[in-house]
Write a structure and sequence with these properties.
A seven-stranded mixed sheet has the order 3-2-1-4-6-5-7, sandwiched between helices. The longest helix is centred in the last third of the chain and has 32 residues. Helix content is 49%, strand content 12%. By secondary structure, the protein is an alpha/beta fold. It folds into two domains: 226 residues, Spore Coat Polysaccharide Biosynthesis Protein SpsA, Chain A; 71 residues. The structure holds uridine-5'-diphosphate and magnesium ion (MG). The site of magnesium ion has 5 residues, from loops. The site of uridine-5'-diphosphate has 17 residues, from strand 1 and helix 3.
Length: 317
């Protein structure tokens, strides 16, 4: 099979028939063999009935129905598990992404040998409250992930080589960082294609509020940490702990030496608790020990994690 299209959706009943007939037309014109996997993420409208109707008419339609709303990432994860096409394309269900981009995305993966091609909504038809924070978000994501050529990490329209999606785990709200996940799994040929974007025709956005930015940054931080120290937590905690402890010990020596020299020289001396170094010593030693303990606990946990030896093997002969 050439292409699997994975479409996560939550309450998008109006868009689905139009989206499917559009995808079908593009596929037919280009002679692709394909499947479209609709993942119904606990919609409360008639989306699932619409998918069932489409499935009756065409064998290329597959549907997954979640019992409740889990989010876009879990929906993608389940779609990826079942995808069989050589190239896997993800697309939002709301008709903001155009299926006309599919042939070129397919070509970039198969001929230009990209692992992942992300859409870039250069001209966006979304309210300013979405576009401005998104610019900031993308700049940070570029910096942290080291993928310098991507302008739009969170574009719903992306194409992957099958290997990529079978080797990454999109969980929580990590769909924003799939290129980073892919890079961490060893897929580094990541490209970008400018895609057309349209205003939402039906329904409303499912990612409105501001908390998504806070959560988005926290997720980015976790990913960075997992990638850098996930397998060796002691390296970061132990390092910080050592620095703290060292400062603590130095302050201790300073406090002691100060008092002893004053005593020796017969000068009036005060209690060690009067010296600021005493408090620095105290805090640093406590913090240092705590960080060390955190490091050891981290090591214990990662030693027992089921995926500790889950390395991505590209080839075996
Ligand atoms: N979506 C989903 N589960 C959710 C929220 C959204 O499957 O919990 C789907 C939604 O139906 C759409 C896609 O994810 O197909 C992108 O959502 P939306 O268009 O609301 O986001 P925006 O384009 O406004 O960023
Ligand atoms: Mg949308």
């Amino acid at each position: 099979m050439d292409i699997s299209v994975v479409v996560p959706l939550y309450n998008e009943e109006e868009s689905l028939p139009e989206l499917y007939s559009w995808i079908e037309r593009v596929m037919r014109e280009n002679n692709f063999s394909y499947e479209v996997i609709f993942v119904n993420d606990g919609s409360t409208d008639f989306s699932w009935q619409v998918i069932e109707d489409l499935q009756k008419k065409s064998a290329c339609v597959k549907g997954i129905k979640f019992r409740r709303n889990y989010g876009k990432s879990p929906a993608l994860f389940c779609g990826f598990e079942r995808a069989q096409g050589d190239v896997v394309i993800t697309m939002d269900a709301d008709l903001q992404d155009s299926p006309d981009e599919i042939p070129e995305l397919y070509r970039m993966i198969t001929e230009d040998k990209y692992d992942l091609v992300s859409g870039y909504k250069q001209k966006r038809y979304d309210p300013l409250s979405k576009t401005i924070p998104t610019k900031l978000f993308n700049a940070t994501a570029r910096k942290v992930s080291g993928i310098k050529n991507l302008h739009d990490f969170n574009c719903g329209l992306k194409a992957y080589r099958k290997d990529v999606i079978k080797n990454i785990e999109v969980y929580g709200e990590m769909h924003r960082y799939i290129p980073y996940l892919a890079k961490n799994a060893g897929f580094s040929k990541i490209g970008e294609k400018v895609v057309h974007h349209q205003a939402r025709k039906f329904g409303s956005t499912k990612f409105g509020g501001w908390n998504r930015f806070v959560n988005g940054y926290l997720d980015l931080l976790s990913l960075w940490f997992l990638n850098s120290f996930g397998l060796k937590p002691m390296h970061v905690f132990g390092f910080l702990g050592s620095i703290m402890f060292f400062i603590g010990v130095c302050s201790c020596v300073a406090v002691g030496a100060l008092k002893l020299t004053k005593m020796y020289m017969g000068m009036p001396y005060n209690l060690v608790t009067d010296s600021p170094y005493f408090f620095i010593a105290l805090t640093m030693m406590i913090l240092g020990t705590q960080l060390f303990v955190a490091g050891f606990l981290g090591e214990l946990i990662s030693r027992n994690a089921p995926e500790r030896n889950n390395y991505k093997i590209e080839k075996e002969i």
